[in-house]
């Protein structure tokens, strides 16, 4: 059976009852299963991970976006994470017996459905992007919800599907297809946001840092600390331990240190094993030495 992963991000991370309603609407779709969801109050954002077949995954993602459009009002939203819509982003990821091209096709169909039935403008990004300048999600989302109306007046930023102006309540949604990424954050023992931003700039690829790393500095107000928040676009090219060590080195320049890391949502086992091997110095380690892996094989 084909398996596609979908990881929609919703602009609600403080009211769990809202997120639960969204999750329930997704789970109600036959052939779709929600594997995980998490909320972040500082970011005011939730991440939901679902899987399904080529035939069912589109409906699952649509039902989540539909419920979010009913429950989330972007005119009242604020948070540390960049966002432009109630359903901010919906990526499709090929997992088993499915091609990237098929995920792109599903992204296109979902974009048309969201715009037609919910009257929300949709931008295609990553592998589904209709133009090279739309491939990078950060560029698509630049200006966020508050700057969206002005941005969409430019010809190069008209939506791929839907109206030429943002939906006042729901904003706009980015729909795409990509390979698996890891949402990985590193926390610092300071509340100085400028330090986190400087470190993020030096760590991300665009600032001369590491390949396949997108990073920004954010505040965690409830904990009175700051964080380097990252998307690890390709953990095989840049493993988690490498970016962690670079952030430790950069932090020393400013007299601060790393006090913890966190993974948002699900993570490939291989990404954690790579860091385990590095930090423990395990020699000649094989993945079939993991008990659970052997059990699954048998």
Automatic annotation (TrEMBL):
GO terms for biological process: L-histidine metabolic process. One of its GO terms (molecular function) is folic acid binding. It comes from the Bacteria. Pfam families: FTCD, FTCD_N. It is an enzyme of class 2 (transferase). Pathway: Amino-acid degradation; L-histidine degradation into L-glutamate; L-glutamate from N-formimidoyl-L-glutamate (transferase route): step 1/1. It is found in: Cytoplasm. Its EC number is 2.1.2.5. One of its GO terms (cellular component) is cytoplasm. Residues 180-294 form the Formiminotransferase C-terminal subdomain domain. Keywords: Cytoplasm, Folate-binding, Histidine metabolism, Transferase. Residues 2-179 form the Formiminotransferase N-terminal subdomain domain. NCBIfam families: FtcD (TIGR02024). This is glutamate formimidoyltransferase. The lineage of its organism: Bacteria, Bacillati, Bacillota, Clostridia, Eubacteriales.
